[in-house]
Amino acid sequence: MILQKSINKVIYIFVLITTLLSASQSVYGEEINEEAKDEILIITSYSSDTKYTYDNITAFISAYQEKGGKLPIVVENMNITSLAQAPQWPKIVEGIIGKHPKIRLLVLLGGEAWYSFLQLEDSSYRKIPTICAMASRYSIEVPSPDIDIKTYEPVSVDVIERMKPFNIQACFSYEYNLDKGISLMKDFYPKMKHLAFISDNTYNGLIQYALIKKKIQSHPELGSTFIDGRKSTLDMAVKQLKGVPDNSVILIGIWRIDCREMAYVNNSAYAFTNARPLLPTFSLTSSGIGYWAIGGYVPNYSGVAQRMAQKAYEVVDLNDTTHPELVTLSNEYKFDAKKLEELGFAKKQLPENSTVINVTPSFFEAYKVEVQTAIAIILTLLLGLIVSLYYYFKTKILSNHLEESTQQLRADKKKLEESEVELLLAKNQAEEASRMKSAFVSNMSHEVRTPLNAIVGFSSLLINSVQCNKEQEEYASIIQTNSNLLLQLINDILDVSRLESGKLQFTYEWCDIVAHCQSMIMLVNQNKTKQIDIRLETHLESYILYTDPLRLQQIIMNLLNNSVKFTPDGGEIVLSFEPDKTNQFVRFTVTDTGCGIPEEKQQQVFDRFEKLNEFVQGTGLGLSICKLTIQHMGGNIWIDNSYKTGARFIFSHPIKNPEIKES
Does this model's pTM top 0.85? Predict the structure, then answer.
């Protein structure tokens, strides 16, 4: 089975190479005779990881065309086979670009292509709009030919810095995170004391070697062994791996080319696995996950082709070159389900948002179509049986009860006729009651308020204009006070009636509630008969609210006057408000230091004619009117039961848009 997979992959690679070579001209081939046209040129390093390269190129071309891209796309391969060719790479790229005089966009795939292009010194190359992808952000300097590659100690450099002089429109690089990788290894193997890192004799392998060599210095608690493909054949690397300590963990970077420049497909994985089968293996790059490595914290390579296509469309077809996109791809935790199960980690809690591959499907997942078909057949047969039985018994029951139903219908008809007469009578009575209520309310409005207004007016005139003795003044004052109370009762009853019937008019307008509240505080202070400190507290100098000022004043004045009744001399009453933009409400609060309201009666105070103290003057309708009014305006009112040193009423008023319709 393993041999067959290897043969299939070799055949796939051969077909892939043939396809790409036939789609493009060789670097040293003949010039194309046709007249040059604008085009998108892709230069790929053409490393041995051809499937990844081919898949990304194919996905890029498809996505670009789906977006409406019009330019032809040409693929050229550097045909890199050895790290020893590195000094010639810039000339190869220069030769490829020279064959394409009308490049609208250059796409570089792979670290070798990046490095080679960034070595070109002619200013004309720095003007070409370029996209870079499929390589690490951190690269290395390729040594000169007179330096032995086996003893060369590369230094990791940031490629993004090197790109600044060039016209880089997009760079989709990835970055290896050794710190999180080591943290993951220790989570699985707490006794880990040694790290064995495997990298091959390629440019990418050398980049990984330089990066890990630098990063491992921040982990002095770990010993390290570098199995370096520049110095070792596969056999030598296997022997070196056999010699690492038992408390080691293997970290695989890449191994496809050894020091003799021999390429391997899967043979290296099998050789390393058999060398130390009990040593756990993790991956730095995703290489080995799926048949050798447990997993790792690796770059997330998905979606790069689509992002390249979007940027290509913007640059080439929309002529937008003002938004360069230099992106480091995110990393992800990736695991092999079979390895987790094999090593006893099947039930281990993996990091959040981990990707797991090679998951063995359940029986129902493996035979989903067959199971669904069988269930559908069974359900169909069962449904047919149920329907047949249903209609059989239904017919029998209908036949047996047909006569009874007829008799019942006759009886029901008679009851309906009687009910119709009763409903008609009740309807007439309800309409009559409604007319009587309307007439009563109308009479209250016109017949009661008119004499009351006269009594209030003339009693006030009597007090203010007629010379009376103290006893007469006291009698006139009593008349005026009780007339005002009676008038207030009538007004409250009318307000409740209008609110319940929906006939009370609301007129909305923009109102500065800071000034409005200050006016109400001044009015209450003028009319109070007790030594009470009544004040407004707010940090706002002005706040404009879309409201009905008259109804808002009615609510606040009712609450303030109610607090004055139950607050003794020396107490205080505080009116405050606070806008809540998150919930789109303004919250008003009236707090006093009076006798408070028992918790068991806090819900009753909003009922009509409900009074906590029967000896205190008042109609018992004020709080009920407050509740009906604020609910009509879209808010609510309640008592703060956590406040124990008096009473605190809170109501919310919605922050409405000016488009609100008046009702």
Answer: no
